[in-house]
Structure formats: C-alpha cells, structure tokens
Design goal:
Radius of gyration: 24 Å
Strand order of the largest sheet: 16-15-14-13-7-12-11-8-17
CATH architecture of the largest domain: 2-Layer Sandwich
Pfam families: G6PD_C (PF02781), G6PD_N (PF00479)
GO biological process, one term: pentose-phosphate shunt, oxidative branch
CATH superfamily of the largest domain: Dihydrodipicolinate Reductase, domain 2
Helix content: 25-40%
Keywords: Carbohydrate metabolism, Glucose metabolism, NADP, Oxidoreductase
Bound molecules: NADPH dihydro-nicotinamide-adenine-dinucleotide phosphate, the ligand O=C1O[C@H](COP(=O)(O)O)[C@@H](O)[C@H](O)[C@H]1O
CATH topology of the largest domain: Dihydrodipicolinate Reductase, domain 2
Shape: globular
Catalytic activity: D-glucose 6-phosphate + NADP(+) = 6-phospho-D-glucono-1,5-lactone + NADPH + H(+)
InterPro entries: G6P_DH, G6P_DH_AS, G6P_DH_C, G6P_DH_NAD-bd, NAD(P)-bd_dom_sf
Structural class: alpha/beta
Largest sheet: 9 strands, mixed
Number of strands: 17
Distance between the termini: 40 Å
Length: about 500
C-alpha cells in the first residue's frame, strides 16, 4: 500500500476524553494513523474531562481502549507504547471558567505558538459554546486553531442556531469543522466517484429511470451505556437529521462544479432545501416511529429499550424511524426516498438501494423484473447491480433469471477499509473541509426535521413497538406497501 505523507505536527485537544466516543472511535483512529506513519512523534493528544485523573491513569485507560477496539493483529507493543507517549491529560470543567484552565494553557504554551491546534468537542452539544468562549478568554484560540463539533449540533433549529452563533463568536467559519462520520466512510465518499465518474449511472439518475430509493442505517446494538444522552435525543435527531440526510444529499445532488468543498456543499444544500416539508399534521402519513420491546435473537432474549434504560424507566423516545421523503425538483419529481434507522434491528447494515423502473413492455414470459443497484455502506462494503439474464437451464423457451454483478471493495482492492474517523481527524489537521458540514446545511436539516418532531410531540403519530431483533414496526412495512413497494429484506 502506498505510504501516506505525514501531516504537520499538531496538538489535538479532546474535550470529553473519557467518554464513549473518544475511547471507542477517536483514540483507535489516531492510533491507526500513528501506526501508519502519518502522525509525527512531536504531536500531542491532550485529553480533558472533569474526572480527576493523572496522565498515567489516562494512558492506562487509553491502552485498555486500544486493546478493546483495535484488531489484535494491528496492535504492536512498541507502537502502542510510543503512541501512549503522545497522550496527556488535564482535568477541567469545560462549562466553568475556573482555575483549571491555566493547566491546559501551560501545557499548550510549551509548544511553538504556530503549532496546529485542534479542539475536538466530544461532549454534550450544550457545552460547545461555553467551551469555545473559555478557550477564547484564556487566549487559547490562535491563528492555527480549529474546532471540531460533534453531531448532533443542538436539538432543534433554535438551539443549533444558538450554538453556531456562540461558537462563531470565537472561531471563524472556515476554522469550524462540523463532523458527520458518515461522510468519512469510504463507501459514502465512493458515491461521488460512482455517480460522477461513471456516466452509465449518471445518465439514468433521475425519475426517468428510477422508481424509488431506500436509505437504511440499521443497528443490532441497543442503547448500551448511552441511555442518558439517547433518551433525550432519539433516532430522528441521532441518525436521520445528520447521517441519513447527508447520505441522501450525496445520492440526490446535481453534479458539483468541482471537488472544492463549497461546490459540493452548495449542491447538498440545494437538496436539503428541496425536501418537501412534512407538516406536524402529516406525520402519521409520512413517518413511523417505534421503540424496541423485548425480543429474541436465536436462543437469546433481548431486553426492551425500557429495560436497557434501567429499573422503572418510562420513555416515549423513538429508537426507530422510517420516513417517506420527497425532493421537489425536476430530477426527483415522484421518486419517494424512504429513510429508516433503528437500534436492535435484525442486522447491522447501512445501505442505499436504488430501484430502477421495469421495462415498459416485456417479450419474455412472466412479469418483467427491474434492475436494482445496492450500495453497501457497511459491513461488506461494495456495490451490487442485479440484472436479468437468460436462464441457462435447458427449456424450450427463453426465460429469465436474476443475477448479480458484484464488487466487494476490500476483496477487489485488497486493502483494509479505514474507519471513517481516521480520515476525518487528519483532514482537520490538513485544514480540508470537504467532508465536513457547513452551518447552513445543519440549519436546513433541522428546518426539515423540526415540524416532524413537533407532530410527534403533539402525538400525531402513535409510538409503535417492535420486537428487538426484528426489522422494525409493521407500520414501516405498511408505509411502503401503500406505494406498492417493499423494504430490501422483503424484496423478491
Ligand atoms: N458515542 C458515539 O458513538 C457517538 C457520539 N457522538 C457525539 O459525541 C459527543 C460525546 O458523546 P459520548 O462520548 O457518547 O458521550 P459520553 O457521555 O460517553 O462522554 C461525555 C464526555 O464529556 C465529559 N464531560 C461531561 N461534562 C463535561 C464538562 N462540563 N466539562 C468537560 N468534560 C465534560 C465526560 O467526562 P467527565 O464526566 O469526566 O467530565 C465524558 O468524557 C456527543 O455530542 C455525541 O452526540 C457522535 C457520534 C457517535
Ligand atoms: O452517530 C452515531 O452513529 C452510531 C452508528 O454509527 P455506525 O458508524 O456504526 O453506523 C450510532 O450507534 C450512534 O447512536 C450515533 O450517535
């Protein structure tokens, strides 16, 4: 594999450094980039959180996280030791301008002033504005500083605006990196290549040839230890407002003029603004919200969401969403985009299904079958085009059989598929914003989501239940059946 060039020396300051995201995703991603020689040894990773820990305690936690979340074959003792040497820890309450900030200031000022600083905010979004204000008051925002904001930014348009305004008072827009890790997934980036480097697809990419589109992000895991966050968020804010809408933008946008960040973002924004609003009174017709009940997987009983939350919990938070979206544009008139995401579903699978229209007339026996393109985001990243071919079984007539043209990327290219964060974390150091979200995109996404949340809050769509380990509520099947369509797992 070609050696990637190292980035410039940097200080990565992670707020929320003891949390789930840092341990499960950020540290493993930085480890892989370090192992591959992309991170210079003089760089530092400075963890901060309120917990009182020594540097050695933090290094110990980080080592445990690497053991748990990096493939054993990729862990090499000497490299792990050298990586742990990059780590520092400062105990600090990001929400308070108290006496703990000077410790961070002292540490940062040990490095040359022009060193790249990345402030990564992996805390609850309600803290983003205050942390940035404190950084600014302490004189820690240098010309070479960037800030990374994790999703979801806010809980609705109003709170997102307030956060963006607050952060924007201390960092210029081109130094604010709003991360959505779905954009860092190889197969999501590959959508751009697939669509705009292969005219064979782009020429068919509209309502002329496409019947409908499905975008799914299904998880088998439940809410895990993130109950306190998730119960206030729910699947619509956690997955649809950001990840699925971003994927929808890449599927639906017009060709950007270039690979410049703003060129791409302008096209995505047009899609978000063309989404047909779903008014609170329409949520029953266009959305399904569900929560997992106790279910089964093989011989195992799977707990309900309420059991996962803990003793005596009550909640009407949705762990599943399905939406019939429409894009009001010349290209996509009359093409439904079905979006769905849920926890404790039957399979872990994120994919896009492009269902083409059938031939208008068939000279073959039986009902004509339409082509289908499936873009597998994860796992088993790849693309499958199903086509009709002649059935080779000797018969006296020419009958058809479905077959797949399949590319499994890892096998085809013989390379490991890096986790999305590996790419994105170093894009921030390089100052490359193409895979990050601009403020107006976040706002347009909330503008579409807010009325749905309002309709649900007014109980205009009942909360359905579904057994853990299933494909979600029956009502989600009915949502497609009304259009004469079916979810991928039900397609014949
Ligand atoms: N976990 C995931 O898979 C994903 C998470 N995200 C986003 O990342 C962010 C973090 O999520 P996650 O790691 O799951 O959350 P956790 O609850 O696991 O971690 C929160 C972190 O913030 C720290 N923290 C809390 N309050 C303060 C404070 N006042 N000052 C400084 N640090 C504080 C906590 O440490 P302490 O208590 O010691 O202060 C802890 O390190 C959220 O915005 C989430 O939406 C986005 C994508 C995926
Ligand atoms: O942002 C989030 O994403 C994960 C799912 O990410 P994936 O890369 O495994 O598909 C989800 O579990 C989490 O709830 C959400 O906050």
């Amino acid at each position: 594999m070609p050696q990637l060039p190292p980035v410039d020396v940097f200080d990565y300051i992670v707020f929320g450094a003891t949390g789930d995201l840092t341990m499960r995703k950020l540290l493993p991603a930085l480890y892989y980039r370090y192992r591959d020689g992309q991170i210079p040894d003089q760089s530092r990773i400075i963890g901060t959180a309120r917990s009182s820990l020594s540097r050695a305690d933090y290094q110990e936690r980080a080592e445990k996280a690497l053991t748990e979340f990096v493939k054993p074959a990729d862990l090499d003792d000497a490299t792990v030791r050298r990586f742990l040497d990059l780590l520092h820890y400062v105990s600090l309450n990001g929400a308070e301008a108290n006496s703990t900030w000077p410790a961070l200031k002292d540490l940062l000022e040990q490095a040359p002033k022009d060193r790249i600083r990345v402030y990564y905010l992996a805390t609850a979004p309600g803290l983003y504005g205050q942390i940035c204000e404190n950084l600014s008051t302490q004189g820690l925002v240098t010309e070479q500083s960037r800030v990374v904001l994790e999703k979801p930014i806010g809980t609705d348009l109003q709170s997102a605006d307030a956060i963006n305004d607050h952060v924007g008072r201390h960092f210029p827009e081109n130094h604010i990196f709003r991360i959505d890790h779905y954009l860092g997934k190889e197969t999501v980036q590959n959508l751009i290549a697939l669509r705009f480097a292969n005219p064979v697809f782009e020429r068919l990419w509209s309502s002329d040839a496409i019947d409908y589109v499905q975008i799914t992000a299904a998880e088998t895991v439940g809410v895990e230890s993130r109950g306190p966050y998730y119960d206030k968020s729910g699947a619509l804010r956690d997955m649809i407002q950001n990840h699925l809408l971003q994927v929808l933008c890449l599927v639906a946008m017009d060709p950007p003029g270039s690979l410049e960040a703003d060129s791409l973002r302008n096209e995505k924004l047009k899609v978000l603004r063309a989404l047909r609003p779903i008014a609170p009174d329409d949520v029953a017709a266009f959305t399904v919200r569900g929560q997992y009940a106790r279910g089964r997987s093989g011989d195992n009983t799977l707990p309900s969401y309420l059991e996962d939350l803990g003793e005596d919990a009550t909640s009407s938070t949705e762990t599943y969403v399905a939406i019939r979206a429409e894009i009001h544009s010349w290209r996509w008139g009359n093409v439904p985009f079905y979006l769905r995401s849920g926890k404790r579903l039957a399979e872990k699978c994120s994919e896009i299904v492009i269902q083409f229209k059938a031939a208008p007339w068939s000279i073959f026996p039986g009902t004509p079958r339409a082509n289908r393109l499936v873009i597998r985001i994860q796992p088993d990243e790849g693309v499958t085009l199903s086509v009709s071919t002649k059935d080779p079984t000797p018969t006296d007539s020419l009958t058809l059989r479905q077959a797949d043209i399949n590319i499994a990327f890892e096998k085809a290219f013989g390379t490991r598929y890096p986790d999305a964060y590996e790419r994105l974390l170093l894009d921030v150091v390089r100052g490359d914003p193409i895979l990050f979200i601009r403020r107006d995109e976040v706002e347009a996404a909330w503008r579409w989501v807010d009325p749905i949340l309002r309709g649900w809050a007014e109980n205009k769509a009942p909360l359905q239940t579904y057994p853990a380990g299933s494909w979600g509520p029956e009502a989600a099947r009915a949502l497609l059946a009304e259009d004469g369509h079916a979810w991928h797992e039900d397609m014949t």
